[in-house]
Design goal:
elongated; Zinc Finger, Delta Prime, domain 3; 4 domains; 28 helices; Helicase, Ruva Protein, domain 3; 5-stranded parallel sheet; alpha/beta; 3-stranded mixed sheet; Rossmann fold; single chain
């Protein structure tokens, strides 16, 4: 007899052999023992999880000569005939190749006839979602009230394509993806029975590549056995599944950690030389960092790891990689994977991704360093404590010594708070355009990367809100940071210089606190609406918000408007 694939030889012949679907098999076994058999069942779930096998086992158990039983005996004439497909009363119908209404009617016409060899006629309709609407309509009435000797078992991988009128007439059982541990356990049994020598790590690799399908796992195992010589090794499993070895992933992760672009590109070149698929590789890399994140946050959940083996190299790499950096890597790799789906040159995207990952800064390290604001606040608190200690010691500070100390904070933050240049901001808003703002926003991230850390720290909670051809308004979340940014000439020069390199234009920098930006913008919009009415040029200028604000601050008698 010709060679048969492993998944055919080891197809389940009893409910106990259906791996990972105990919630289904237990329910069906109880129904068999209590003789509460429904007239229609719907088995739905991913491919290779045992839907059709469970349907045939149910057909055998119903018609077994020893019924009622929870398992078919597989020894009586009825069980052997159903297994061999020689009993015409159990019909396995493929809806994918027989989807027309005429073919469904031919089947339904024979439903009314009594079974000839067993007690029940069982119709197993595989891939039932492929039936046409007319075929579903033809099935509907028979499915609702079939003869007492007929049972329908529908199997599908896409239950959402089946009409609700069909689903409501069936008992539905949802088959789940089989866990990698269950697949490995089943494969161990098979290789032990067949006498094949196989590494356990190779079986784990195959189980993870099968993505929850037992049939896929056995097909890959069959391939690996054929490819190997005397023993199925991890390298054989990697070759068959197209996956990347963990040693390679560890090497690449080390390149990212050490910022070694050359080493990363050399490793990628070696990968592509061996014929690995770029899209499959980036998926493996995402799963690698996903497992690393799970290992760092929940080291006891070893079963949840999908891609990696917990060897010493991986543990060392996980300890050396901060959690914040793992978040960055996963997010960036996910975006790259989406972009690679729509390109004819995935290799280029992959090479660019490797370079960027090697150059990516660690946000966790930056977060660990105290920002300028925190440093200033701690310094102020320290000075206040020292001043309090001097007072308690009875030491008084003379007015000559105190004056400079009082003047300095007064210059930074007045009682009225920081006052932005409202007039200049309004002038920018008059000529600001969305295109200019989008141009700045498009280069914002690259500009931040080019700044030194002390300058970039001032822009952590800032964003551009308006721009013209030669000016830029930046909104700061904190008033103190806005004051610092506008007072520091070196910061302004760094911002304008960095933008000039990226856009070719030199922008005037204007800062505004977030809490004042809304009022300034609203005042500007109101003044613009006012200009549409019939008012004189002089009245417009008198109603400008920065003039009224100046009068409020300093008094109307001290304000002089110069044309």
């Amino acid at each position: 007899m010709a060679y048969q694939a492993l998944y055919r030889v080891w197809r389940p012949q009893a409910f106990i052999d259906v791996v990972g679907q105990e919630h289904v098999t237990q329910t069906l076994q109880n129904a068999l023992l209590q003789q509460k058999i429904s007239h229609a069942y719907l088995f739905s779930g991913p491919r290779g999880t045992g839907k059709t096998s469970a349907a045939k086992i149910l057909a055998k158990a119903i018609n077994c000569e020893r019924a009622p039983v929870s398992e078919p005996c597989n020894e009586c004439a009825a069980c052997r005939g159903i297994t061999n497909g020689t009993i015409p009363d159990v019909l396995e119908f493929d809806a994918a190749s027989n989807s027309r209404v005429e073919e469904m009617r031919d089947v339904l016409e024979k439903v009314k006839f009594a079974p000839t060899a067993v007690n029940y006629k069982v119709y197993i309709i595989d891939e039932v979602h492929m039936l046409s609407i007319s075929a579903f309509n033809a099935l509907l009435k028979t499915l609702e009230e079939p003869p007492k000797h007929v049972i329908f078992i529908l199997a599908t991988t896409e239950p959402h394509k089946i009409p609700l009128t069909i689903i409501s007439r069936c008992q539905r059982f949802d088959f789940r993806r089989i866990t990698a541990a269950s697949i490995v356990k089943r494969m161990k049994l098979i290789v032990d029975e067949t006498g094949v020598v196989c590494d356990e790590d190779a079986l784990k690799m195959i189980a993870r590549a099968a993505e929850g399908g037992m049939r896929d796992a056995l097909s890959l195992l069959d391939q690996a056995i054929s490819y190997s010589q005397d023993r199925v090794t991890v390298e054989d499993a990697l070759t068959v599944t197209g996956s990347v070895s963990q040693g390679f992933l560890n090497k690449l992760s080390s390149s990212f950690q050490e910022k070694d672009v050359a080493s990363g590109l050399e490793a990628l070149e070696e990968l592509l030389f061996h014929g690995k698929d770029p899209t499959r590789f980036i998926e493996d890399l995402i799963l690698f960092y996903r497992d690393m994140l799970l290992y760092k946050t929940a080291p006891n959940l070893e079963e949840s790891l999908e891609r990696v083996m917990l060897d010493d190299e991986f543990r060392r790499m996980a300890e050396a990689t901060p959690t914040g950096q793992i978040y960055q890597f996963i997010e960036f790799l996910n975006k790259t994977q989406q972009e690679m789906r729509w390109t004819n040159h995935p290799r280029i995207f992959l090479e660019v991704a490797i370079v960027k990952l090697c150059q990516m800064e660690n946000i966790e390290k930056e977060a660990a360093q105290p920002s300028n604001v925190d440093h200033l606040l701690s310094r102020i608190e320290q000075l206040e404590n020292e001043l309090e200690q001097l007072k308690t010691s009875g030491i008084t500070v003379t007015s000559q010594d105190a004056a400079p100390q009082q003047q300095k904070p007064a210059q930074r933050v007045s009682r009225k708070g920081f006052q932005p240049a409202v007039g200049k901001i309004n002038e920018v808003l008059k000529v600001a355009t969305k295109n200019d703002l989008n141009q700045i926003k498009g280069k914002w991230g690259e500009m931040l990367a080019n700044l030194i850390k002390s300058h970039a720290a001032l822009l952590n909670d800032a964003e551009p809100v308006a721009a013209s051809a030669d000016a830029l308004i930046i909104k700061f979340k904190h008033e103190m940071i806005c004051q610092m940014a506008t007072d520091r000439k070196d910061f302004q020069e760094a911002i304008t210089g960095a933008l000039q390199k990226l856009t070719g234009k030199r922008f005037l920098f204007l800062g505004v606190p977030e809490e004042q930006w809304g009022a300034i913008r609203e005042s500007f919009l109101n003044s613009q609406h006012g200009e549409e009415g019939e008012v004189s040029e002089t009245s417009k200028k008198e109603e400008e918000p920065h003039i009224s604000e100046a009068k409020k601050l300093f008094g109307a008698e001290f304000v002089e408007v110069i044309e």
